[in-house]
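Appendix C. Worked example: GTPase Der
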Amino acid sequence: MMGTQRMKPVIALVGRPNVGKSTLFNRLTKSRDAIVADFAGLTRDRHYGQGRQGKYEYIVIDTGGFEPDAASGIYHEMAKQTQQAVAEADVVLFIVDARAGLSAQDHDIANYLRRLGKRCVLVANKAEGMREGAQLSEFYELGLGEVHPVSAAHGQGIRSLIEFALEPLQGPEPEEAPEDTATADVIRLAVAGRPNVGKSTLINAWLGEERLVAFDLPGTTRDAIRVPFERNGQRFELIDTAGLRRKGRVFEAIEKFSVVKTLQAIESAHVVLLLLDATQGVTDQDAHIAGFALESGRAVVLAVNKWDAVDEYQRQLLERSIETRLAFLKFAKIHFISAKKRQGLGPLWASIIEAYQSATRKMPTPQLTRVLHEAVQYQAPKRAGMFRPKLRYAHQGGMNPPVIVIHGNSLEHVADAYKRYLEGRFRKEFKLVGTPLRIEFKTSQNPYADKGE
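Step 2, the predicted output written as structure tokens:
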């Protein structure tokens, strides 16, 4: 199960163009399992990513280059996006080019960051092979304290940089460990979607039902804003993505769409309810949110809101655009609802619970191995040159999302299509609906390959 509810810290990368921000971004996020490779049609916004260095997990935002223009000054050119990213970050990594040295633009950015009073770490990139000291000393002029030399391209100095940046944010470990096991039956739910798609209307429609009982949970500021409630004996926690504020019994949404809040909510949820707008179709933003949910390994339920406001032709177009643009969410159930008219809300709960149960399903090794052998008997993997992959046994490697590890020989030659075929067999056997499923192959070494040693 997921550990504690503390939010991952957010790191914003800031700096002028060509200082190596995207190289550093890729270096900080590449440690993620590349689970998205075989999901066709997944659009990914490379401005946001998750990463891990040692014990530190985080979300990174790459703000793109500052392009200050002499006439309009830095502030006009600093996209609102960048300002919001910096505002939402827990720590800003300000990247300068150790080879090119200080520029006037660096001074502008430093002044801007200093005024914000945000925790800021100065990073001198492209510092490979440099002796610390002399060449980096000019950067101390920026008045941002210690300079951290790194080489994003070669991966030097990255780990200690992250430790330095995030250590002060660690704080005491949340005292939730015992409570977390006690609330293993609480389903954490994030309702995600673009602004004005009807998130708060849906939540109010839900909370307006007499069968929902809100219960109180203590939370700290670094936690997600959570609305605990119970429905038919099942406890839920709604993780806020809409900037909800409680006003009496009703919630109002402060609709300032924040990608970071959405990402954090998705990260801390078990199930993501992705709300689409029937009148708008599937937008890039929808696809990005969906892609991030998939990358995070979250169970997903799709709900198309304002379904009553579109005609038959628009409905067909919409269904087609879900099929093509969200093809990678084939495992997710789709519901057509109207939050305003409270239509179709009941079945959503069933799908949310089903998705959660699928994501946390226990799959015994004997049963997995039996399904594997039946699948191979029915259709064996193709030979690849001299090699025919031999699939021997399977076991469960994790939950939420479920991971199945298959052991055997020459498994690196198993084609993607065959992997999808196996996924279908496992899904059917274990009734996995609404959750991604990861399949990993582990090849045992051929005992005859290294005879010479």
